[in-house]
Amino acid sequence: MVQQVTSGIKITVDTFFEGSFYKNYKAQYAFAYTITIENQSKDSVQLNARHWEIQDALNNPETVDGEGVIGKKPVLKPGESHTYTSGCLLTSPFGAMQGYYSMVNFTTTKKFNVAIPLFKLSAPFAIN
User: Residue 119: CB partners within 8 Å, gap ≥ 6?
Assistant: First the structure.
């Protein structure tokens, strides 16, 4: 588990190896991650977008941008949290992800980014 706080927003990440399979004669390694976004600030905030940088040990880095998380743009009052689980496929048993959430503070109407800390993805059978 990794954690980081940016502008009063705490991000906690847990990762899980889901398994491997072959697709088009290439190995695919499935990873899941659960993220909890906790508002430790005194203002209500909304998550509007996400930016991911995905590292695969065997491929070039991939960048993914999109609105919200899992089709939602959660509003978090002070003390509230939002948890979701998502995943990614890699072509190797090792990789990593990091990024940020684009958010807006409802009190100040200012937009700000919240860092998603670097977290590693590794299949247990590949760790020595």
Answer: 2, 13, 15, 33, 96, 97, 98
